[in-house]
Design goal:
By secondary structure, the chain is an all-beta fold. It has 2 domains: about 15-65, no CATH class; about 75-130, SH3 type barrels (Roll). It is about 0% helix and about 40% strand. It has strands spanning about 20-25, 30-35, 40-45, 50, 60, 80, 85-95, 100-110, 115-120, 125-130. The strands form 3 sheets. The chain has a 5-stranded antiparallel beta sheet, with no helix packed on it. The protein is globular, with a radius of gyration of 16 Å.
Amino acid sequence: MSENSTIPPEIPKKRAGKARTFSCPNCGGSVTVKAVGLSISAVCAYCSSVIDIANDNFRILATANERTRPTLLTIGSKGALNGVFWEIVGYMEKSDASEFYRWDEYLLYNPYQGFRFLVQSKGHWSLFKV
């Protein structure tokens, strides 16, 4: 699936609110939420805690699993795909019900294009729009 259409900055679609930074309630590290108003959780880059950002309590939903494996791409990285600049704002390792098929999903964000999924499976990459 190809993502060739771009929207010029002067004609934005619905946008997220201004970026917001807060301290991680687990380790005190700086956490920045880029898609304020669209995001419901954030992951601390320092301790990997998953934080509920739906309200101002910033409650920890989960702490890092010691068996977490390194990813091919880093959350927070920025780059261009098909002429559109994206930032990696999330990651999940997924599998089918049998756990025979596994793949990596990176959540990409652009304030004018919205969200996309960059999926990697056995060295093959695909870009999806939901």
